[in-house]
Amino acid sequence: MRDHLEWKVIAACSSAGIVMGALSLFGLTGGIELVLWTAVALVSAFAVARRTSARLFLHGLLIGLLCGAGNAAVQVLLFGLYVEHNPAAAAELRHFSGTLTPQLFLLLTAVPVGTVYGAVIGSLSAAAARFHHPK
Q1: Which tens digits make up the pLDDT trace of 67-119?
Q2: Which of 36, 71, 92, 95 is the most buried (most CB within 10 A)?
Q3: Are 61 and 106 in contact, with CB atoms under 8 Å apart?
Q4: Has residue 135 been placed in a domain?
Q5: Domain range for residue 36?
Q6: Has residue 103 been placed in a domain?
Q7: Tell me, what DSSP letter sits at residue 53?
Q8: Quick check: helix, strand or coil at residue 54?
């Protein structure tokens, strides 16, 4: 049994966070973001189950964390563009961020949100491994 992490799988799957961040900059994820993140989680879980044989949950957890970090990084780096195309999200950010800047709030919430998302992907990976054997 291979005991190491498959970093290519982790990198490939977590790059979806950057893609989602880029799409959100132009308001393209509005209204369908939950569907898109669900699709990313399912595809990632099957990729992990197919390509790894050990540490399935850890693979999923890292993918979720990196997806969250990538998504937040894109939105923070190009915050003006994000706010321009997502006025409702910008208003919510201002409301929930309290004394923090919206950008800092995005960065700080990326870790817990990414952790929960990663736990979901990790659990789905473990479940999918029952049906797929690694190559």
Answers
A1: 999 999 999 999 999 999 999 999 999 999 999 999 999 999 999 999 999 99
A2: 71
A3: no
A4: no
A5: 7-128
A6: yes
A7: S
A8: coil
